[in-house]
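Extended Data, panel c. Modelled sequence:
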Amino acid sequence: MSRVIRAAVFQTAWTGDKESMIRVHEQAARDAAAQGAHVLCFQELFYGPYFCQVQDPAFYAYAERIPEGPIVRRFQALAKELGLVLVLPMYEEEQPGVLYNTAAVIDADGSYLGKYRKTHIPQVRGFWEKFYFRPGNSGWPVFDTAAGKIGVYICYDRHFPEGWRALGLAGAEIVFNPSATSRGLSGYLWQLEQPAAAVANEYFVGAINRVGVEEYGDNDFYGTSYFVDPEAQFVGEVASDKETELVVRDLDMAKLREVRDRWQFYRDRAPGAYTPLTAP
């Protein structure tokens, strides 16, 4: 019997302040639950602007402890109320001066399941992330949630195939890729890399990108969030390139077995031949 997961992603523009941004996402969670969603992922650094367009220590104040901080606690209560798995991409402070780009995962009963810390950190014009984040040290965990086995890979990570494969080997059924990526920079990759990763690793991918131009730079975030299946087929329409949008789609997990039975990529791997890949 087929198992269908109703999954959601939410793209939106920066509202101008943290509290209103949080409220927008709380409403998105309520809307997703009202549509029967089992799991919802927000965009990268969801409650703030994409401040990495500038290098300013004032933005360190957006970081908080995970899971002890107030935002995780607030969304734990909401997840429990709604019976909804939540993936919260946040700015994490492990201790003063030790900061990560992190996603916290909350189960449908409100319990905190763990976190993924972004592994690959860019440092290019408009994306000065090494000023704000240490490279992640979490490995590539897969979370056993009420909505199935969920993995997370954050923004720039998507350019590196190794983590995608590690998530597949750990049993991921859906991998979310919350992002903040700009028109003109990555548009030619956006509808290429995640579908290719879904095919190569034989799972569903949910790709999320914010929208709009923010006051801290000229990055034009182009949305177009989507779900893609392991045959590189978009599940429903791709979201708007300009407007706030909640994308809710039914993902049929029977597709995973069908594709894996057809293409035995995991059987035919040759890890013993890959040693040079780990050389510095």
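The two ends are 46 Å apart (CA to CA). This feature is highlighted in the accompanying rendering.
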